[in-house]
Amino acid sequence: VTPVMSSPCCGFLAQYTHHHLVAFLLTFFSYVLLHASRKTFSNVKVSISAQWTPSVQNASSPAFSPGETWEQNNLFADSDGATLFLGVLDTIFLFSYAVGLYMSGVIGDRMNLRYVLCFGLCGSAIVVSFVFGTLTEWLQFYNIYLYCGLWVLNGLLQSAVWPCVVAVMGNWFGKSGRGFVFGLWSACASVGNILGAFLASSVLKYGYEYAFLVTSVLQFAGGVVVFFGLLTSPKEVGEPVERDADSHRPLMSDEEDEEGSEEVCDGGYYTIQQGDEEPRETPKAIGFCQAFCLPGVLPYSLAYACLKLVNYSFFFWLPFYLSRNFGWKEAQADRLSVWYDVGGIIGGTIQGLISDFMGKRAPVLAVSLLLAMGALVGYSHSPPDQVVNAALLATTGFFIGGPSNMISSAISADLGRQEALRGSQEALATVTGIVDGTGSIGAAVGQYLVSVIESKLGWMFVFYFFIVMVRSSCLTHNVRQCSCLPEMSHSFSSGASYIRHCVVPVGDIFGPVI
Amino acid sequence: MTAGHSQQNAAVVLLFIHLCFSGGYQLTELQVGLCHLCNGTVQNGTAVSQFCSASAGLIDGRCCLLRKENIRDADYIIGLDLSNCSLSRVEDLQDAFSATTIDLSLNPIVNLDDSLFEGFILLAKLILPANLVCPGGNASWDKVKVKGETHFCEGQKDICNQTGYLSLNCPENSLCLPYGPGFFQCSCVDAFRGYKCLREGEFPIIQVFGPLAGSTVLVSILLWVTQRRKAISV
């Protein structure tokens, strides 16, 4: 199989059939829909919080009557308690998502990708979004433990989707197809955020339960379409799978033939290569502790955790903050929050391009992180004017989304150079898992911290917390030696335009990509 | 007393007959309770009896009921005369929420519950023993006068219009409406509904999900035909 130059010109695209196009679109939109319904929760936080609490009154004034309209629901005594619980739910979701990713790799290796993907989409849509948001409201049944249990289930079911879509893309487009195609594809998370925000904001006036209803029905429909239309691999129509001669070398290293300006550099994921495998080098297994102690793993994990924390926090809390702090209607806040994702898409693209031209990532990263701190300061003092706020939001997204993607891509490149790991896919996976896992757990803990800080100290301190996190990310990143790990940060971060694509032989760990 | 007794018996019998032939009123049992809380019937010359004859109502025990055209509708109590009943406590008058005139005079009542008259939006004349104050205070009534043993409260004021009161701010999307002497309710305006009047309008389920279902089916069929129909199991 001849490696194909993935220079973005028309001739390059001619090799792809309509099957490729459909596979691209189906995987793209299934992840878009998944992310849209994931975002729904953060888009309706204000409404849910209002639904769970009785009306606010001064101590001296009598309670409003009729009680059914104003005082009846007291799942939480006041909005602070509700905010804390919302943070707890975010944390629970992230933890179970991380756990689910570990398991999905194993499952995805053994079962039909199409079934797993469909199951994840439909299951998450019905069992969770519908029951969590819509049924509890229609039945007027509010219960803390039910919400927590459903959200754990949500995390587990949603974690099945990402590895599958990535594997399908890997099957169809192979390693050589990266760059332009994957760059385009990796915007799916941000497009999902934007779609989710628009859907929620247009339906919110009927009640938050309808926002959940619409996104979960859409997601379910997506699952149905995927079931009937997805070909998981060219093998299913008798075509050979894309294969590159050097499929066992780490994707990112300077010696490799890199395709022009679209440097592929972010979000590692693992595909399942079905069928025949070329003989490969004996893998050098590496213990967990050994991997942890490799130079640079710890600093990178911490740096990545800090940045991921800020990114996730914006994802989960932005509409809530806009609504509470400026008093805007929730639907307006949802639409405004879209600008963060837009900034992230642009930031990821442009900073990636710059670092490609320069050939170095560190300077771009350092500058961007420093400017991110300034952007956060500026944003925290934003005037209550929607246009200015949107501009500041886009700027903040630009400076935070960019490094987020870059760190993960740089991780993969540098790791490949390390002696201990060169050529060893298992070790790569282990180290990836460590950095990804630490990043996700740090971000998960951070969600709860955000709600605690907000209820005790207010939003300004939340921004100080973010600035500290970005600063530590900057510092620890500079400390790092050379452990760079592939990761799928852009599942949450805004708009990566690069995807790293690691190929792992059959039977190996699917990859603890979180 | 015998005459009153037999009159009461007759009234009860009539009521039971009514019960048997009709579907059963919602308030019947309780009407029996309130209207026959104590012996006797509405005395001639009292405020309630004057009001009752003026509005062509039906006297039943101590109540004045509104004559309804449709006999199946629940009877509304429009007047209640519980004077001289030896009541020391008045617990629940909710069944008479539609009453316009209530007479509680000549009873040894010590004090009245604050919430007793909540929901009595039609109450225009309240007669109490002299030791009690008008519910909602004197400011809730147009005319308050004490005559001998009785306290007259007349003309319920609309609390929502009072400038004397601290501004009653109903939350967003709701309006202040009077709900009895000294009481108010915040009711949702226009198309707003639901808890805290947060929801507006009716979600167009058919218009949203109809096209969605249709296009899902279409796309699925299209893709199956073009993609999966020739798929070989791997």
From TrEMBL, chain A:
It is a multi-pass membrane protein. Signal peptide: none annotated. Keywords: Endoplasmic reticulum, Glycoprotein, Lysosome, Membrane, Sugar transport, Transmembrane, Transmembrane helix, Transport. PROSITE patterns: MFS. One of its GO terms (biological process) is xenobiotic transmembrane transport. One of its GO terms (cellular component) is endoplasmic reticulum membrane. Residues 239-264 are annotated as: Disordered. The chain crosses the membrane at residues 21-37, 82-103, 115-132, 144-168, 180-204, 210-231, 297-318, 338-355, 362-381, 387-407, 456-474. InterPro entries: MFS, MFS_dom, MFS_trans_sf, Sugar_P_transporter. Its main location: endoplasmic reticulum. Gene3D superfamilies: MFS general substrate transporter like domains. Residues 23-480 form the Major facilitator superfamily (MFS) profile domain. GO terms for molecular function: xenobiotic transmembrane transporter activity. Belongs to the major facilitator superfamily. Organophosphate:Pi antiporter (OPA) (TC 2.A.1.4) family. This is Sugar phosphate exchanger 3. The lineage of its organism: Eukaryota, Metazoa, Chordata, Craniata, Vertebrata.
UniProtKB/TrEMBL annotation, chain B:
One of its GO terms (biological process) is positive regulation of osteoblast differentiation. PROSITE patterns: EGF_1 (PS00022). It comes from Oncorhynchus kisutch. It comes from the Eukaryota. This is All-trans retinoic acid-induced differentiation factor. Residues 186-197 form the EGF-like domain. Residues 1-22 form the signal peptide. Keywords: Membrane, Signal, Transmembrane, Transmembrane helix. The lineage of its organism: Eukaryota, Metazoa, Chordata, Craniata, Vertebrata. PANTHER family: ALL-TRANS RETINOIC ACID-INDUCED DIFFERENTIATION FACTOR (PTHR15926). The keyword Heme does not apply. The chain crosses the membrane at residues 205-225. The gene is LOC109887485. SUPFAM superfamilies: L domain-like.
